[in-house]
């Protein structure tokens, strides 16, 4: 039961998106929206910046929602790595812009929470 409650808290924090791209807490939207501005020709650098911004946003939101001692850094990192695997920066930006990342990210976050003990 604790995993379900924890998962619900972290998922809400890590996938919230405000209307009209306005900042709202908790959630990754401000950082994820900024990620869309990455225009570097270097795919690897763009992917690294995308991951870093997404991770920072996820951890910030999840830390506020999770009970003390929860390894939110590991949960967020796990889910983000799985979401990014095999995708280009353009694909990730399109998913972010459309919101298509939300449901798959929630599924990956649930898996990571189950696999990484608190």
How would you describe this protein?
By secondary structure, the protein is an all-alpha fold. The chain has one domain (2-115). It is 69% helix and 0% strand. It is built from 6 helices and no strands. The protein has helices spanning 2-15, 29-35, 43-65, 72-84, 89-98, 102-115. Helix 1 crosses helix 3 (43-65) and helix 1 runs antiparallel to helix 6 (102-115). The protein is globular, with a radius of gyration of 14 Å. It starts with a helix and ends with a helix. Mean pLDDT is 78; it is low at 1-5 and 16-40.
List the SSEs and their pairings:
Blueprint: H1 2-15, H2 29-35, H3 43-65, H4 72-84, H5 89-98, H6 102-115
Helix pairs in contact: 1-3, 1-6, 2-3, 3-4, 4-6
Percent range for helical residues? 55-70%
- Overall pLDDT: 78
Summed up, the helix count is 6
pLDDT under 50 segments (min length 5)?
A: 1-5, 16-40
Taking Cα atoms only, what radius of gyration do you get, to the nearest Å? 14 Å
SSE string, helices as H and strands as E: HHHHHH
The 3D shape can be described as globular
- Total count of domains: 1
| Coarse structural class | mainly alpha
Distance N terminus to C terminus?
A: 13 Å
Largest sheet: none
Please tally the β strands and state the result. Answer: 0
